[in-house]
């Protein structure tokens, strides 16, 4: 088995990946397209660190799964220990940003929702968490205005700015730190905007964060 996943900073440094925290329904337009109510507090789930993959990698759809969806998301990288953080603590603790894809087995997630079961298989399978190289936070003073998005085979499927989020990056970190002890190398997938859709074998995916970083992945069925 490979050693632990290393987050690559654009500077060339690396940071061992810790816990992958994910937020659901953080954009009103995506909640609408899913026919889901707006949550009264952030919807939180986890992916195992071994679900991560990098720029140039392959999203491998598990056998007999027909409906793997892309969810492009802004990813915040934590650089400090945080517990019961203030908003100032949260802002200071973000060392960088990446663009990520929360690959989701939509049919399996829908079944889990219907039966009140966890989303772990739908959300946490191997290669379900592509993460781009990390841009240092100080290089992006106005993250709220930076467009991120995703295209499949050259067609744009999703694009948004973090300003459209219901809870900001700082607010999400404050919330998470009320429950969890965040640590250096942890990442937060901050939710997806509208435009989610299927990925099939042979697709070429490109995700970008402004003009500062991008990643490209192939899609294949897992053998
Ligand atoms: Mg998501």
Give a description of the structure.
The chain has 223 residues and is of the alpha+beta class. It has a single domain (6-221), classed as Fumarylacetoacetase-like, C-terminal domain (Fumarylacetoacetate hydrolase, domain 2), CATH 3.90.850.10. The chain has helices spanning 28-33, 87-93, 106-115, 120-124, 169-177, and strands at residues 6-8, 14-16, 20-24, 43-47, 52-53, 58-61, 68-70, 72-78, 94-101, 104-105, 129-130, 135-136, 148-152, 155-160, 187-189, 197-199, 204-209, 213-221. The strands form 5 sheets. The chain has a 6-stranded mixed β-sheet. β17 (204-209) and β18 (213-221) form a beta hairpin. The structure holds magnesium ion. Magnesium ion is lined by residues 22, 24, 71, 73, 102, 191-192.
Question: If you compute it from the alpha carbons, what radius of gyration comes out, rounded to the nearest whole angstrom?
Answer: 16 Å
Summed over residues and divided by their number, the pLDDT gives a mean of 96
Strand content: 25-35%
Looking at how many chains there are and whether they match, the oligomeric state comes to single chain
For the record, the CATH architecture stands as Alpha-Beta Complex
- The CATH topology assignment is Fumarylacetoacetate hydrolase, domain 2
Count of helical regions: 5
Secondary-structure element string: EEEHEEEEEHEEHHEEEEHEEEE
CATH class: Alpha Beta
Strand order of the largest sheet: 4-3-15-8-9-12
Query: Would you report the number of β strands?
Result: 18
